[in-house]
Amino acid sequence: MRAMTVSRSATQPAVLGIDFGTSNSAAACRLGDGPVQPLVLEGTATALPTAIFFNAEDHRTHFGRDAVAQYLAGTEGRLMRSLKSLLGSPLLLEKTEVNGQPISFQEIITTFLLEIKRRALAQMGTEPTQVVLGRPVHFVDDNPERDALAQLMLSQAADAAGLRNVRFQLEPIAAAFDYEQRIDRDSQVLVVDIGGGTSDFTVVRLRAPRPGEAARRRDRSRDVLATRGVHIGGTDYDQRLSLAHAMPLLGFRHTGPDGREVPSAVFFDLATWHLIHWRYSAKAIREAQALRTNYSQPLLHQRLMTVLQERLAHHMANDVEQAKIDISRASQSATAHPAAHMDFGYLEPGLGADIDAAGLAHHLAGLLAQVVQCALDCTQAAGLRPDQLDAIYLTGGSSALATFQQALQQAFPGVPLVEGDLFGGVAAGLVCGVD
How many Cβ atoms sit within 10 Å of the Cβ of residue 168? Predict the structure, then answer.
């Protein structure tokens, strides 16, 4: 996609929508009465992985695919992903050392938002007069105070990045606005937004365009019939698969000489994107070293220490995530027996693990059941039966997971699944509802 540069008069409004996601981020804009335009954030792609790498060799900062590539190439530095998951947590204000300097995780989020703004303005050619930030239905489940704190923290990070006149919109409602641009009849739709950290649902009445119709009403509150969300997403699926297939190679659920399992906290952290970096500190490495007496097999403990000392956990997490994606793609293409091999040869020659579609479905069944139940609860809260929906609109990268779509079809038989722009739909919808 070619970069967009548009000239405008000083009085023409410019709206910028930013979908700051756990795993991927996107942006879109609208200048004056013009159409909504997705913005290219990396190369020719509109989706930018929410990853940041601080290069310790030349002190440059890398973003997105470039950040992950630098890390996987063995460049010395710090990789950070899934920072959105820290919003609402006191950990966000704690400082970590980057290239010899202390920096808070909120400042790192600010750095990422500032880069999105920089890339967006290069295409817009002007400062936005309004910014709309997406937010999940719940940053934090069942805790209104921490949820409000999470939005405040994101708002403060946006302000520090120089984003002005910021307002928030629920991500599934934004996705609904995006889908509404393409329907040809009025519909009652369940919007499903499955991201890296949350799964959000909205039942909404959508109106097909009518000849000569003026701009749509900004206040669509009466059209939103119900909204629900749960703090489960793609990174939780990755964690579950890592604990099942990768962490046992380091000693997870290994029984020691005293007949008890090795303490599991280190493995849960190494299987969780936004917690990995905590295990690279000198104190955490000393704690892991002290686990040696809990192991009956020294090789497993040696692998654990190698992962920590050489900072290989992000590499393992990336391989687990890619295996999940590969199996899902193969399932959608009707491959007879979808499977993937995770090659951990960088840890130990010949070391690896295999996973197939049946195993993936087994390990994710519990999480998927919770997510699908949230979809059913949202539909019931809207006063509808599943068969009264006209469509289920899918957005968010994790909504493409074949096992999830299969579970959704079983819960909503006969309701068509419509796959939207998985990574850019929310960003586009953020600016659709702004006058």
Answer: 15
**SS3 of residue 205 by DSSP:** strand
Q: Which of 99, 115, 96 is CA-nearest to residue 58? A: 99
Residue with tokens 């919003």: 87
Judged against a pLDDT cut of 60, whether residue 182 lies above it is answered with yes
Range of the domain at 205: 181-233+364-419
Same domain, 297 and 348: yes
Asked if the structure places residue 90 within a domain, the reply is no
pLDDT tens readout for residues 230-281: 999 999 999 999 999 999 999 999 999 999 999 999 999 999 998 998 899 9
Angstrom distance (rounded) from CA 165 to CA 44: 29
User: How many structural domains does the chain have?
Assistant: 2
On whether the CB atoms of residues 342 and 271 are closer than 8 A, the answer is no
Query: Does residue 207 sit in the same domain as residue 197?
Result: yes
Q: What is the pLDDT of residue 8?
A: 47
| 204 sits in which H/E element | strand 199-206
Write the CATH number for 186. Answer: 3.30.420.40
User: Which tens digit of pLDDT belongs to each residue from 366-416?
Assistant: 999 999 999 999 999 999 999 999 999 999 889 989 999 999 999 999 999
Helices (H), 161-264: 171-180, 234-245
- With a CB cutoff of 8 Å and minimum separation 6, the contacts of 226 are 201, 202, 203, 378, 379, 381, 382, 383
Let me know the angle formed at the C-alpha of 348 by 256 and 339, rounded to the nearest 5 degrees.
Answer: 95
Q: Does one domain contain both 300 and 275?
A: yes
- Residue 228: closest CA among 103, 90, 370: 370
Rounded to two decimals, the pTM is: 0.86
DSSP 340-409: EEEE-TTTSTT-EEEEEHHHHHHHHHHHHHHHHHHHHHHHHHTT--GGG-SEEEEESGGGG-HHHHHHHH
